[in-house]
């Protein structure tokens, strides 16, 4: 008979809660479920906040959230699932950072909380009430968490960095257009 510790139950609850929320957010992006906008609407939003091409960005974010969330909830491939979800949340947090910390002001609090919880689960492991445990941890080896975080961190840095450069160019172009418009007006005589 197997004895489960409180830690295993706690990890199960964290995995189910965090994974379920992430999977639901991903389903909003991918399928338009739960009041979401699907790939088309999410793609337009992604373009508006500097993630381009929008549909590709929406698909990648949706897959990281839905796939990472579902795998976290199941406790399967936990290092990769947690790292993927944390990367997606880092990308989301970068969109909300200009609004400050708190979610009620449109800040990054919620994305950061989900990302940190997913990262914590990837590092801690899924516990014994998981598919990883049932399968002998074949997809949850010690080397997998650092590898998954390294790959996800690199990809996230490139994607978010590209977004920031794109937004700066967009802002600069808008300022130049305003400047040209202002000085292209005919001067009126008094």
From TrEMBL:
It holds the Pfam family DoxX. Residues 1-23 form the signal peptide. Its main location: membrane. Keywords: Cell membrane, Membrane, Signal, Transmembrane, Transmembrane helix. The chain crosses the membrane at residues 70-95, 143-162. It is a multi-pass membrane protein. It is found in: Cell membrane. It comes from the Bacteria. Belongs to the DoxX family. PANTHER family: INNER MEMBRANE PROTEIN YPHA-RELATED, OXIDOREDUCTASE CATD-RELATED. This is DoxX family membrane protein. It comes from Streptomyces actuosus. The lineage of its organism: Bacteria, Bacillati, Actinomycetota, Actinomycetes, Kitasatosporales.
């Amino acid at each position: 008979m197997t004895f489960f510790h409180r830690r295993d139950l706690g990890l199960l609850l964290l995995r189910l809660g965090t994974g379920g929320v992430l999977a639901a957010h991903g389903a909003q992006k991918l399928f338009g479920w739960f009041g979401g906008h699907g790939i088309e609407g999410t793609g337009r939003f992604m373009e508006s906040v500097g993630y381009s091409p929008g549909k590709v960005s929406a698909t990648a974010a949706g897959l990281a959230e839905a796939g990472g969330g579902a795998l976290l909830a199941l406790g399967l491939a936990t290092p990769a699932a947690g790292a993927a979800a944390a990367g997606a949340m880092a990308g989301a947090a970068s969109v909300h950072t200009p609004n400050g910390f708190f979610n009620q002001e449109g800040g990054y609090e919620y994305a950061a909380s989900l990302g940190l919880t997913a990262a914590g689960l990837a590092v801690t492991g899924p516990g014994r009430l998981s598919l990883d445990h049932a399968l002998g941890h074949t997809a949850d080896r010690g080397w997998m968490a650092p590898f998954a975080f390294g790959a996800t961190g690199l990809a996230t840095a490139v994607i978010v960095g590209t977004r920031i450069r794109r937004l700066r160019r967009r802002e600069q172009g808008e300022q130049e257009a305003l400047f040209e418009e202002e000085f292209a007006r005919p001067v009126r005589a008094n």
